[in-house]
Amino acid sequence: MTRGPEGAVVPPPAVPAGRGAVSSVIRESLAYSARENMVSFAGGLPAPELFDADGIRASYDRVLSRAAGRVLQYSTTDGDPDLRTALAERLTGRGLPAEPGSLLVTSGAQQALWLLAGTLLEPGDVVIVENPTYLAALQCFQHAGAKVVAAPTDRHGIVVEALDDLVTRHQPKLLYLVPNFQNPTGHTLPVGRRQELARLAATRGFWIVEDDPYGELSFHRSAPDWIRMDPVAADRVLLVGSLSKVIAPGLRLGWLLAPEPVRDLCVRAKQALDLHTSAVDQAAVADYLANNDLDAHLKRVRAEYLRRCTSLLAGLPDALPAGSTWNVPEGGMFVWARLPAGHDAVALLPHTVEQGVVYVPGAPFFATDADPRTMRLSFTTHEPDVITEGLARMARAFDQIQQPEVNE
Ligand SMILES: Cc1ncc(COP(=O)(O)O)c(C=O)c1O
């Protein structure tokens, strides 16, 4: 029993969760984004004007006219059978033969990550992550009490040679990867490294969580094969996908493809969490996939994102201080930039905000050894002319700041 300052009995304290202090930098950036006339490169949002609202509305109309009693009723935890069939067909079409029964529909990919962390990890278990990585995955692992170990990355993603040694030292239970157009770096893991990782997982006995919300946003050619497609590691790769970036994130629809024992554990955990993902949303999206050409839609989205990415890349040399570097993504939503020595992207943010442009500092995405010079720039939500204006504002902000005199 706990007593407060006046001697009254008070409820027990809540358990503090994860990385509130660090992620507040991101919350702050997103709050700035909402200000009037701000040009925001901060969000990780799909372009709203590209949502197929008419097509989605028609699907809701159809399922509510034809099957209201079913789609407004409680449903099964595994997910709508029609949606799982449609998702399995898309996977099969992309070269990964999948059965609807191997899929679990989740409330966004985020829920799949939470379920996997909750079912596979015990406090103290080691999870290896790319450094930097997707912040909300780190939060899932930390909530599960796991010890997160950061693996070094280069401009292609995780460095496999370094991983070998980390596996020996830490005996990880799980390796978490975003191999395609990664968040936050935009990196894409080359085929050779995927094969080496599959071999390593097979010989050293750990799970790979392959999180792929961006794979269908490739600008030029298809993204490389999933690690899950390598027969060497098919029984230990847990593939997570999402409809957020290909249809709309407000639907909150994702999926998990996992071997039966893991899928079953996740189904049981999901039962306790939310019983099932919204039945009407699943039914509407199953109808949408049956009656629309998602690939044609994605072709338009990809072309538009490429146009916006190209305009961001074209403007960066004049916007960022001399000596800055950045990657050229092959798809997805993000450019990852690094300012010259002595700069701190967190400290600089208020100055760019004053000029009316906001980005996300890169530091919070690092599990350890945060690089203060990094920033994530999303190119998806603005037309090229707005991107150009945002970059002009950024240039003004950097011009006004006294440049640090640091020799590397
Ligand atoms: C790497 C990564 N995984 C998962 C998610 C969550 O996606 P969803 O909207 O499907 O929950 C995101 C969202 O931005 C992401 O970047």
TrEMBL record:
Q: Domain Aminotransferase class I/classII large spans what residues?
A: 66-393
Entry-linked Pfam families: Aminotran_1_2
User: Which intervals of the chain form a coiled coil?
Assistant: none
GO MF term (any one): transaminase activity
InterPro entries per the record? Aminotransferase_I/II_large (IPR004839), Class-I_PLP-dep_aminotransf (IPR050859), PyrdxlP-dep_Trfase (IPR015424), PyrdxlP-dep_Trfase_major (IPR015421), PyrdxlP-dep_Trfase_small (IPR015422)
Under Gene3D superfamilies, the record lists: Aspartate Aminotransferase, domain 1 (3.90.1150.10), Type I PLP-dependent aspartate aminotransferase-like (Major domain) (3.40.640.10)
What is known about its subunit structure? Homodimer.
User: What does the sequence similarity comment in the record state about its family?
Assistant: Belongs to the class-I pyridoxal-phosphate-dependent aminotransferase family.
Q: What is this protein called?
A: PLP-dependent aminotransferase family protein
The species is Streptomyces spongiae
